[in-house]
Specification:
Blueprint lengths: L1 H23 L3 E6 L4 E6 L6 H10 L5 H11 L3 E7 L5 E6 L3
Antiparallel strand pairs: 1-2, 2-3, 3-4
Keywords: Membrane, Transmembrane, Transmembrane helix
Length: 99
C-alpha cells in the first residue's frame, strides 16, 4: 500500500512540474484537477505587426503576402492544451480544439 501512495505522490509531483513549466513558457492555467490529475492551459495568440509586414510586402513586391497571411490567420489564434497523467502514470499533453 505504501508503494501505491508513493507512486501517487510522484505522479502529483510530475504533474505539478509539467504545469509549472507550461506556465513559465507563457501559458495560463484555466482549470486544474488534482484528483484526476489533469489541467487545461491556454495561451493567447501573438500580435501581428501589420505595419512591418506591409513594409516587407512592398519590398518583396508582394511575395511576403503568403507569410503575412499565415501569420495573421495561424499565429494569432488562441492555443489550448490539456496536460494530464494517464492510468499508467505517464504524463501526456494534448491540443484542445478552440471554438
Amino acid at each position: 500500500m505504501k508503494k501505491s501512495q508513493l507512486s501517487q505522490e510522484q505522479s502529483l509531483q510530475v504533474f505539478s512540474n509539467m504545469i509549472s513549466n507550461k506556465v513559465h513558457n507563457g501559458f495560463t492555467l484555466e482549470e486544474r484537477n488534482d484528483k484526476l490529475l489533469f489541467a487545461v492551459l491556454s495561451k493567447g495568440g501573438k500580435v501581428v505587426n501589420h505595419g512591418l509586414n506591409f513594409t516587407i510586402f512592398c519590398l518583396t513586391l508582394g511575395l511576403w503576402s503568403f507569410a503575412w497571411l499565415y501569420l495573421t490567420l495561424e499565429a494569432s489564434k488562441k492555443k489550448k492544451i490539456l496536460v494530464a497523467i494517464d492510468e499508467d502514470g505517464l504524463p501526456f499533453e494534448e491540443r484542445c480544439l478552440v471554438a
